[in-house]
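Amino Acid Chain and Its Fold in Token Form
===========================================
Structure side: the spatial fold of the chain, written down as a series of whole-number tokens.
Position: the record begins directly beneath this header, with no further notes in between.
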Amino acid sequence: MTPGDHRTHDLAELVATACRVMATVGLVEHVLGHISARISADELLVRCRGPEESGLAYTTADDIRRVSLDGSADVGAWAVPNELPIHTEVMRRRPAVTAVVHAHPPAVVALSLVGGDIVPIYGAYDIPGALLAADGVPTWERSVLVNSAELAGVMADVLGDRPVVVLRGHGLVSVAEGPPETAVPQAVLQAVALDTVARMTLAIRSAGGTPRSIGEQDLAGLPDLGGGFNVETMWRHLVRRTRDVGHGA
């Protein structure tokens, strides 16, 4: 096996682990949702549906298949996601993006249907989530299956240069740049952070309150704890948690 083959195999294992993590934390339910990792300028690895499909919680590296950015693929008995254009179109338009996550967190879906902006309702409770909300999270107002380059292109226009976009009544898309080995965890953790904001916002509304942004002074005072804590430590925690609930491979 060449070094390139080793890296592709390791990335497939990482994407499979990330799929199981998403199931563990409730970002996806049952068989819907997918993750991709760019492996070259014109190829990516993406979670496909296998001949014995059992859902995201049971994803293995065999379910992660190589696909061209133009959408062509030889995946054997597997099937590429219907919404593969989400991945290919975002990566085509943003060459620096190396990981794309599409998930359906129920709280994000519910909040998108209730309406209203996502705001940084807390600070130190979840600093990455607060900063993500403070920078603005766009919403695409369509609830359609994103199964064409045309639809994915419109969605990508709404995403712009942001890391996350909400798909109204559908879910979210989270993207990250840099080496895919770190971008895949980053994209998943951004989705986790947005889900946390959404769940807390819904809880405030359910209690009869009005979600309000924290003050500018508090926002400005939030420290950057660095990728070692925000990404690496959090990722280790979620991977171990996934294994402990029986979703490890």
